Structure formats: structure tokens, C-alpha cells
Amino acid sequence: MKHNHLMWGIWILALQLSTANLALAQDELANLPDPTRPSPAAGASRGHASAVDKLASLRLESTLVSGDRRLAIINGKILGIGDLIYGASIKIITPYLVILERQGRIVTLKLVKDKLTRRRGLQEAAR
Fold first, then answer.
1. Would you tell me how many other CB atoms lie within 10 Å of the CB of residue 61?
2. 77, 79, 82, 87 alpha-carbon torsion, rounded to 10°
3. Which structural domains are found in the chain, ordered by start?
């Protein structure tokens, strides 16, 4: 009987130690940055930037165009036509660009940089 009582004590101690280790591991993981989260834009460090300044910091990361479904990932947010970001409304989503409008100002975000397009054109011309 003493043997069973001792075994139960060992099991309880082991359980308490593993629970304590799990709690410590969770505390350590809570302080790690999310590697999938976009890095903060330069405008965010300036404090309270105006919506116009924020529009200049928009970055088109991806688009999805399939039938009637049109989505864009802009600064880490999934948005569709009509959605707002920094007060600008998304008007058009194509496979390579997004057009937004805010108070009459049109903003075009391109997925493929002009430099890449020009470089490819120059390479084809050189052939």
C-alpha cells in the first residue's frame, strides 16, 4: 500500500512539473512576433498620419480574380470591391492592379513593378 501511495505522489509531482513547464513555454511564445504578420509600415511609426499619407503607404501584396470573385490583399488585409482602407474605396481589382478612390483622388496599386515589365520588354527586344 505504501508503494502505491508513493507512486501516486511521483505521478502528481511529474504532472505538476510538466504543467509548470507548459505555462513557462506559453509565456515565452507569447512574446515572439508573428512571422506571418506584415512588418509595420513607415507611416505607422510617425504617430497619427493622415489618411492621405496612409494611402501613399499602401502595398498591394496579392490578388485573386476568379469568375465574379475579386479579392486583393493590401497591407495584410483581405479586401473586396467596395471595401474601405484608410477611407479609400476599392473600385477595381484586376490580376495585376487595384484602383481605389478617396474623395475624388484615384490611387492605383500595381502588383508587378514597372521596372520588371520594362526589363522583360528589353530582354525580349534583345533576342
1. 14
2. 10
3. 51-117 (2.30.30.830)
